[in-house]
């Protein structure tokens, strides 16, 4: 049960006492999206990130979700992936397989991981080609606000620096407007070589969930969610603004501790001062 649900500027922020409460509500929320999408289109296309968001999805592997979700209609993709062997400990595919996919009756041919025998550039081009085929065959929906695929759900984690997927602050790929999938070879978060959805693809999704827990994410969540002037517009997490989709933040109280809307009154004054100060600065 969320402690708080806050709505503003097409953003919904859900705050939970702890990660266990968050993971229960996250499973419930995702099941609702799955049911609606399968009812409407007969499929549910989900793109996963790496990191702790996968473990926070763990309740989907348990009763009732493992019995009530129509897993046969799920199609799995990766928002970003490290360019390593799929058996490597750094692989997001391995992370999802170990913690989710191996525990659910998902159809193996519906799981679209990268070709791990290619270079980063080749893997990005290959992944985009696969996506384009799946949009052509209508497995993946096409956006009507862009020429991008429209995933039913994109799940993002949040880095302490405000990165999402493998879109890091001040990186040129944040400006990529045409490619669906691009690559980096100098990720500040190891390993260095990754492929990643571009912002136009993320922002064409029907639903985007950003899931973050722990105090080390508090500043990034605050900068991404609160109106703090132009300074925070360079944060990749703030650039996640699905044009025709819904954006929901799932935070625990630590990660939400600096978010202006949800702080307790005593801290609110400090935040207001910060906002006033930053506005003077601009
Ligand atoms: O491949 C990756 O590294 C992820 O996609 C990355 O974007 C991750 O989601 C964040 O860094 C948060 O990771 P944590 O939740 O584990 O801190």
Automatic annotation (TrEMBL):
User: Where's the Glucosamine/galactosamine-6-phosphate isomerase domain?
Assistant: 18-249
The EC number(s) given in the record are: 3.1.1.31
Q: Which Gene3D superfamilies match?
A: 3.40.50.1360
Substrates-to-products reaction catalysed: 6-phospho-D-glucono-1,5-lactone + H2O = 6-phospho-D-gluconate + H(+)
Task: List each coiled-coil range.
Answer: none
- InterPro entries named in the record: 6-phosphogluconolactonase_DevB, 6PGL, Glc/Gal-6P_isomerase, NagB/RpiA_transferase-like
GO BP terms: namely: carbohydrate metabolic process; pentose-phosphate shunt
Q: Could you cite one Gene Ontology molecular function of this protein?
A: 6-phosphogluconolactonase activity
Pathway recorded for this protein: Carbohydrate degradation; pentose phosphate pathway; D-ribulose 5-phosphate from D-glucose 6-phosphate (oxidative stage): step 2/3
The record's keywords, sorted A to Z, are: Hydrolase
Q: What are the annotated GO cellular component locations?
A: cytoplasm
PANTHER family per the UniProt record, alphabetical: 6-PHOSPHOGLUCONOLACTONASE, 6-PHOSPHOGLUCONOLACTONASE 1-RELATED
Record family assignment: Belongs to the glucosamine/galactosamine-6-phosphate isomerase family. 6-phosphogluconolactonase subfamily.
Q: What is this protein called?
A: Probable 6-phosphogluconolactonase
């Amino acid at each position: 049960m969320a402690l708080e649900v806050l709505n503003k500027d097409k953003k919904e922020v859900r705050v939970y006492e702890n990660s266990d409460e968050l993971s229960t509500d996250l499973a419930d929320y995702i099941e609702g999206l799955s049911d609606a999408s399968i009812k409407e289109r007969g499929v549910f296309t989900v793109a996963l990130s790496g990191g702790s968001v996968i473990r926070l999805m763990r309740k989907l592997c348990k009763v009732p979700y493992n019995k009530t979700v129509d897993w046969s209609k799920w199609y799995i993709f990766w928002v970003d992936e490290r360019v390593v062997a799929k058996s490597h400990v750094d692989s997001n595919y391995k992370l999802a397989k170990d913690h989710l996919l191996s525990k659910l009756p998902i159809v193996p041919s519906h799981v679209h991981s990268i070709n791990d025998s290619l270079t980063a550039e080749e893997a990005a081009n290959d992944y985009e080609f696969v996506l384009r085929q799946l949009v052509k065959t209508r497995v993946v929906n096409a956006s009507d606000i862009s020429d991008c695929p429209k995933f039913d759900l994109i799940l993002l984690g949040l880095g302490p620096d405000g990165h999402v997927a493998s879109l890091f602050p001040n990186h040129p790929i944040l400006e990529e407007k045409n490619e669906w999938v691009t690559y980096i070879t100098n990720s500040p978060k190891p390993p260095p070589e990754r492929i990643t959805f571009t912002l136009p693809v993320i922002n064409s999704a029907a639903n985007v969930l950003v899931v973050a827990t722990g105090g080390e994410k508090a500043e990034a969540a605050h900068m991404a969610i609160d109106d703090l002037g132009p300074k925070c517009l360079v944060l990749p997490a703030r650039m996640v603004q699905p044009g025709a989709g819904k954006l929901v933040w799932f935070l625990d109280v630590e990660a939400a501790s600096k978010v202006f809307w949800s702080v307790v009154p005593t801290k609110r004054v400090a935040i207001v001062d910060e906002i006033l100060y930053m506005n003077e600065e601009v």
